């Protein structure tokens, strides 16, 4: 009696799953069409213009500026600082999100509300504020301005919301019962975190990491006020690019910008791949 | 929820059309595009001009920003009738694009509306006793100046340092070494004069190299420091030029700006007037003595040979002298 | 318990150093010279117009990017198509573009005489640069990824069993989207919108390059802050920034209050 009932249910269910899960081909095409048009106008065209401009000085000019010692120093500094900032964000941002969702304390709602403020503040204000707080006249005795540490500080400020805000929604939806079940079966706190919570949070963390990384590579407004911009020492790539534009060599600026973006793209793909790998159990 | 989506879709359209429908100004419009800091003085000039016969019914739009960026924006199509920028180099950029006359410096006063000089701002009371260019190369003196590749202001600073060194008797090679030694003492190279001022007034450094007019503006706004004008120093000439297709009111305004009364306004705001006789006015006596600071040289001196040549020799990103200096000071061999 | 307190201490310590102390400083710098400079800066008609321009640009960019973000997230998580990984990386790329480079790109595209579309646009009397369209384009560019990045992890976490169940009960695609998918990603969309709004409010570099900074016409709140800073009116600059921050907080509060309610069941 059971076997025919199951088989008659299974077939329509499989067809439905294709309809719901994979989506109809027509609506996929429409969706992708809208997405591509938007992306083309907003993102692809400007970047294409940039690539075109970078070729204006020919491949000789391109390599000349990209391999110049000052450009190399700026690029190295930018990537180094970005990696440090992203690691800090991944750890402390996750902890912050955890505390904001799972913990309860007076003033939590207020703290939650101000997490996004590093975005809403114009970057020059961010720079000036950090300069007042942690510069030569620091009220707390911290003198981090005009050093490489200042770059990390400025970037931490502007990337703070990313990991916190991408992990929060995931935490909201996370089923607490899984953790409680594991604990009732005798798993220690750390094991629960490592084997149950972390794998579920990882896509959110990695999404935030990707955003933080991208922002850290391109940031100029707050870094330029706080770091001192000494070439070969505290000058980041975006400031170097800015100088090329100002000197009247937009093709040189475009060349270095393209290199920065290409490297960013590779990093983004890599993190995307990492996320793919980390969520492989969901596709099994 | 559905209402939210409706709002989300309609809102952009409403906002876009609302802004497009904003009314146009009747009468003549003069678009004034200026460098970052002359707003207080220009606002006075504009409101006074409006009360003259030539200024009746003329409305002004004003834009302030870094001189080089403004020049590039004008070339890229920003509507502009008058350009008031901080270096002749930026006007040359406009001339090369056909927006300003190639003979812009043949106009009255060579199209210069006001002057300033390259000066130092030091901590109040001058604790490190900085009086001359040579003092900037002393051990332990921390100098703040913008990056010459991103800031027109910084270009004046570099040329002034070189010029002062040559005028003191050094030959070309020694003078370049002097500039290198100065840059070894530079602790922050901000992207603009404004940022450099912020850096200095936040407590960093012993001396800021800037325009004398910026220093007076900072002090008037309550910032603390002492002005030191070294001997000799470089004359900063600020060009105000009417551009192609500008209405006649634009030329009228420029002529107005050269009239003695308006030159007196420049003088009272920290700018050195080009109409020197204005300084004999009794109410400007204190300014006259403030501006009496010693010899100056300018960009036409044979040391420089004009902006185009100086820019090529010093600030070309491939072969300019500053590239070598920056590399010596901070580069990989350092 | 101890672990909870420990985590709380770490998180709050981090936030105090990186966020709360700077915010306190913004308050302090705003009011340190009294209320007069604050009032003067905020009541200036050019400042008010600058806020208007910022709000218009934000009001256009946020809905556009929200719709784009949700569509993108659905496509990436639920659909199958080639180049998914590339699309994924491409969405985030705008963030890595330095604001001055964005300005340069828009110049390259839309400058009247030398731009790719410049001659066509000026022939038809359409002004992009130094007018609202360029400000909107720059603002949209810098805030592209946020909604997508928020929604994608949540969608992945959720799976689509609920939609499947609804489909077996006869729900149409539209009904499934409205009543199940959208409510289940509400927190993600909320945070995405909040992030996008805040980013649009605070954008400076790209807008400064393409807007022309024409007082009373194309200045945004952020370029106004720069202008006030240049003229050493720091209290006014901080006051304008504080208003921007307040708007961002208001958006967050509004979104959490009117968030879409849980779907049936």
Question: Can you describe this structure?
Answer:
The complex is a heterotrimer of chains A (284), B (334) and C (265). Chain A folds into 2 domains: 54 residues; 226 residues, MetI-like fold (Orthogonal Bundle), CATH 1.10.3720.10. Chain A is 81% helix and 0% strand. Chain A contains 14 helices and no strands. With 334 residues, chain B is an alpha/beta fold. Chain B folds into 2 domains: 143 residues, Periplasmic binding protein-like II (D-Maltodextrin-Binding Protein, domain 2); 155 residues, D-Maltodextrin-Binding Protein, domain 2 (3-Layer(aba) Sandwich). Chain B has 13 helices and 11 strands. In chain B, strands 1, 2, 3, 4, 5, 6, 7, 8, 9, 10 and 11 form an 11-stranded mixed sheet that branches. The radius of gyration of chain B is 22 Å and the shape is globular. The model of chain B has no long low-confidence stretch (mean pLDDT 91). With 265 residues, chain C is an all-alpha fold. Chain C is globular and about 65 Å long. The C terminus of chain C is likely disordered. Chains B and C meet through helix 1, strand 2 and helix 3 of B and helix 3, helix 10 and helix 13 of C.
Keywords:
heterotrimer; B: 334 residues; alpha/beta; D-Maltodextrin-Binding Protein, domain 2; 2 domains; 11-stranded mixed beta sheet; 13 helices; 11 strands; C: 265 residues; mainly alpha; MetI-like fold; 14 helices; 78% helix; disordered C terminus
């Amino acid at each position: 009696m059971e076997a025919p009932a199951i088989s008659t249910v299974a077939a329509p269910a499989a067809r439905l799953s294709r309809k719901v899960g994979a989506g109809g081909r027509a609506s996929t095409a429409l969706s992708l069409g809208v997405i591509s048009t938007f992306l083309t106008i907003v993102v692809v065209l400007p970047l294409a213009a940039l690539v075109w401009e970078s070729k204006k000085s020919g491949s000789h000019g391109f390599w000349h500026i990209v391999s110049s010692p000052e450009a190399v120093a700026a690029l190295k500094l930018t990537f180094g600082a970005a990696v440090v900032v992203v690691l800090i964000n991944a750890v402390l941002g996750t902890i912050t999100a955890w505390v904001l969702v799972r913990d309860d304390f007076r003033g939590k709602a207020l703290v939650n509300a101000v997490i996004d403020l590093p975005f809403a503040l114009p970057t020059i204000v961010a720079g000036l504020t950090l300069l007042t707080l942690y510069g030569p006249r620091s009220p707390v005795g911290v003198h981090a301005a005009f050093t490489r540490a200042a770059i990390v500080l400025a970037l931490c400020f502007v990337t703070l919301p990313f990991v916190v805000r991408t992990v929060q929604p995931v935490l909201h939806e996370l089923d607490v019962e899984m953790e409680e079940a594991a604990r009732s079966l005798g798993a220690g706190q750390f094991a629960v975190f490592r084997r149950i919570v972390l794998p579920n949070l990882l896509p959110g963390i990695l999404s935030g990491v990707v955003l933080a990384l991208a922002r850290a590579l391109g940031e100029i407004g707050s870094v330029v006020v706080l770091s001192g911009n000494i070439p070969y020492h505290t000058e980041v790539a975006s400031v170097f690019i800015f100088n090329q534009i100002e000197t009247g060599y937009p093709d040189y600026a475009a060349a270095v910008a393209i290199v920065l973006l290409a490297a960013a793209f590779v990093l983004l793909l890599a993190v995307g791949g990492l996320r793919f790998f980390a969520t492989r159990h969901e596709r099994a | 929820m559905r209402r939210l989506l409706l709002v989300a879709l309609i809102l952009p359209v409403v906002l876009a059309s609302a802004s497009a429908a904003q009314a146009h100004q009747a009468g003549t419009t003069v678009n004034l595009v200026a460098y970052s800091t002359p707003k207080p003085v220009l606002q006075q000039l504009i409101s006074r001009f409006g009360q003259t016969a030539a200024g009746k019914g003329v409305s002004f739009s004003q834009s302030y920003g870094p001189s080089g960026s403004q020049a590039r924006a004008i070339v890229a199509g920003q509507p502009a009738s008058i350009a008031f920028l901080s270096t002749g180099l930026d006007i040359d950029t406009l001339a090369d694009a056909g927006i300003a006359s190639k003979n812009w410096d043949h106009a009255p006063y060579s199209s210069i509306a006001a002057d300033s000089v390259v000066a130092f701002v030091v901590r109040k009371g001058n604790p490190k006793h900085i009086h001359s260019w040579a003092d900037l190369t002393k051990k332990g003196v921390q100098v703040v100046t913008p990056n010459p590749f991103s800031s027109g202001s910084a270009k004046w600073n570099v040329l002034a340092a070189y010029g002062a060194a040559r005028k003191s008797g050094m030959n070309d090679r020694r003078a370049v070494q002097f500039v290198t030694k100065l840059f070894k003492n530079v602790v922050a190279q901000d992207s603009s004069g404004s940022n450099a001022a912020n850096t200095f007034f936040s407590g960093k450094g012993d001396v800021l190299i800037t325009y004398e007019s910026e220093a007076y503006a900072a002090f008037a706004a309550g910032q603390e420091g002492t002005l030191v004008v070294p001997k000799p120093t470089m004359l900063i000439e600020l060009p105000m030029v009417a551009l192609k297709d500008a209405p006649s009111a634009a030329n009228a305004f420029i002529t107005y700006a050269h009239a003695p009364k308006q030159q007196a306004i420049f003088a009272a705001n920290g700018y050195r007037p080009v109409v020197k006789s204005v300084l004999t006015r009794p109410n400007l006596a204190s300014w006259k003595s403030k501006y009496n600071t010693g010899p100056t040289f300018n960009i036409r001196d044979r040391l420089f040979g004009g902006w185009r040549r100086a820019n090529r020799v010093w600030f070309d990103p491939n072969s300019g002298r500053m590239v070598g200096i920056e590399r010596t000071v901070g580069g990989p061999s350092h | 318990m101890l672990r909870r307190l420990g985590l709380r201490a770490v998180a709050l310590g981090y936030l105090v150093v990186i966020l709360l102390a700077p915010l306190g400083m913004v308050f302090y710098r705003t009011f340190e010279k009294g209320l007069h400079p604050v009032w003067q800066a905020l009541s200036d008609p050019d400042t008010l117009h600058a806020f208007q321009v910022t709000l218009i640009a934000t009001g256009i960019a946020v809905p556009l990017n929200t719709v784009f973000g949700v569509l993108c997230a659905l496509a990436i998580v639920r659909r199958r198509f080639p180049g998914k990984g590339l699309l994924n990386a491409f969405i985030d790329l705008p963030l890595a573009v330095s604001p001055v480079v964005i300005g340069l790109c828009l110049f390259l595209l839309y400058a009247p005489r030398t731009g790719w579309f410049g001659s066509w646009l000026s022939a038809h009397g359409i002004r992009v640069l130094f007018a609202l369209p360029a400000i909107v384009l720059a603002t949209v560019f810098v805030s592209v990824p946020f909604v997508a990045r928020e929604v994608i992890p949540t969608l992945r976490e959720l799976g689509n069993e609920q939609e499947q169940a609804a489909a077996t009960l006869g729900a149409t695609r539209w009904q499934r989207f409205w009543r199940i998918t959208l409510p289940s990603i509400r927190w993600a969309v909320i945070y995405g919108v909040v992030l996008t709004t805040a980013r649009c409010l605070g954008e400076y570099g790209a807008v400064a390059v393409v807007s022309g900074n024409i007082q009373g016409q194309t200045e945004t709140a952020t370029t106004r802050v720069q202008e006030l800073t240049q003229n050493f009116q720091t209290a006014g600059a901080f006051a304008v920034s504080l208003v921007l921050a307040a708007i961002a907080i208001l958006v967050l509060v509004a979104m959490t209050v009117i968030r879409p309610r849980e779907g049936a069941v």
